[in-house]
Amino acid sequence: MFGVARELRKRGVLGLNERNAELIMSLNPRRLYPRVDDKVLTKELALAAGMAVPDLYGVIANQGDIRGFAEIVETLESFVVKPAQGSGGDGIVVITGRSKRKRDAFRMASGLLVSTEELEYHLSNIVGGQYSLSGNRDKAIIEYCVQFDPVFADVSYQGVPDVRVIVYRGYPVMAMVRLPTRASDGKANLHQGAVGAGVDMCEGRTLEGVRENLVVDEHPDTGALIEGLSIPAWDTILESSARGYEVTGLGYLGVDMVIDRVRGPLILEMNARPGLSIQIANQTGLKDRLRLVDREFDAEADPAARAAFARQAFPAA
């Protein structure tokens, strides 16, 4: 046991207790948490900062608002329903089309049909707080359904892949691509079985994949190779992630982005308590990168300069 601990320290792996005590507690004031915990507020702040986000079609703030759901989606062929204060992908429903026979029947990403009444019942559960972080009443968001970039078509099952970037004191320090699988029910959630692929911060190129702590070369459902994919608009992704520092005020931040085939990178959400599995995906620890940022930190550097630093400082080994 002690040998394993020493090896982890040698590799610079950041542990959960260290993350909580040295990063989250010291760099992320709790008064700022609503900026990332409430997806409606996050979207408003990002838009005010000139950051691209999925279009917001409507917000269901209470049970009475559910009556207006049909009108909100009346002209939409695709959209996403999600809790404003949810986490881990719970409560998210992705609608990719409508039934050709019944206009009030919607096709989910899984291919199954769901009725308007069933979606309204789901909205009621969201508003009631079933998926909220705190268990308190919540709001439901209805937003644009991302059409993911074809570069990921062969390494994703049904859902939309995303890019998670860890930002420390405004500097992007590590990234991974999360690839949905059949086991994860099309969600980009590693804890539910998605594949995480590390990213070369210099080139924006995927490294080997990891699924349930095991290294994998191929996507488990499609058989496509995971390593070597060039992520589109990598400079934009890094700079947008760095800008999350100004938008949220959080010193240790996870920024999740998706790449739309038409609109390019979009901010999906931000996280004040990003997990540590990104180290497994990259097969390297965070500590050395955090220390380098501490040594080279420049309070006057803008997001573009901090993104450029990340490309230069953190290439794949």
Describe this structure in words.
With 317 residues, the chain is α+β, with helices and mostly antiparallel strands. The chain contains ten helices and 13 strands. The chain folds into two domains: 217 residues, ATP-grasp fold, B domain (D-amino Acid Aminotransferase, Chain A, domain 1, 2-Layer Sandwich), CATH 3.30.470.20; 88 residues, Dna Ligase, domain 1, CATH 3.30.1490. The two termini are 27 Å apart.
Q: How many strands?
A: 13
CATH topology of the largest domain: D-amino Acid Aminotransferase, Chain A, domain 1
Overall SS class: alpha+beta
Mean residue pLDDT: 90
> Separation of termini?
27 Å
Radius of gyration: 20 Å
Oligomer: single chain
Give me the secondary-structure topology:
Layout: H1 2-10, H2 16-27, H3 34-37, H4 39-48, E1 56-60, H5 69-72, E2 79-83, E3 93-98, E4 105-108, E5 113-115, H6 116-127, E6 140-143, E7 162-168, E8 171-179, E9 195-200, E10 205-211, E11 214-216, H7 234-248, E12 252-260, E13 264-271, H8 278-282, H9 287-296, H10 303-313
Antiparallel strand pairs: 1-6, 2-3, 2-6, 3-4, 4-5, 7-8, 7-12, 8-9, 9-10, 10-11, 12-13
Helix pairs in contact: 7-10
Short description:
The chain has 317 residues and is α+β, with helices and mostly antiparallel strands. The protein is built from ten helices and 13 strands.
Which descriptors apply to this entry?
D-amino Acid Aminotransferase, Chain A, domain 1; 2 domains; 10 helices; alpha+beta; 6-stranded antiparallel sheet
